[in-house]
Amino acid sequence: MAFLLTQELPVEHGGFGGFEYALLLAVPLIPLLGYALQMSLRKKLPWGDKLLTLGMGVSMAITVFMAFKAIAASHHEGFQFFHESARAGHGWSFKWLYHALDWDAAKNISVGILYDPLGAVMLAVVGIVAFCVHLFSQGYMHGDKRYNIFFANISLFSFAMLGLVLSDNILFFFIFWELMGFMSYSLIGHFSHDPDNPYFHRWASWASKKAFMTTRVGDVLLLIGILMFFGWTDPELGRSCASFRFTDLWAFSQEAVQAHQAAGGVGFPTWMTVAGLFTFGGTVGKSAQFPLHIWLPDAMAGPTPVSAMIHAATMVAAGVFLLGRMFPMFSPEVLIVVTAVGATTALFAATIGMTAWDLKAVLAWSTISQLGFMVAAVGLGGVTAGMFHMTTHAFFKACLFLSAGAVIHACHHEQDMRKMGGLRKRLPITFACMLICTLAIAGVPFFSGFYSKDMILLSGWAAILEPDGFTGWSVYATAALSLAAILTAFYMFRMVFLTFFGTYKGEIVEGHHGHGHDDHGDHGHDDHHHEIVHAEDGGVAHGHGGPMPKEVGWQMATALVILAFLGFFAGDFPSLGWFNIYHPHPWFESLATLESLYPNVSGWMVERFEVSEHVEHMAHARAFWGSVLVIAPAGILAAWFLYMRRKDLPAKITGALGIVYETVANRYYIDEFVKAAVIAPTFALAKLLKLIDEKIVDGFVLLVGAVNRLLGGFMAAFDRVVVDGIVNAVGLVSQTFGAVSRLLQTGRVQQYAAFAFGGGLLAAAWLILS
Question: What is the value of pTM for the model shown?
Answer without folding.
Answer: 0.85
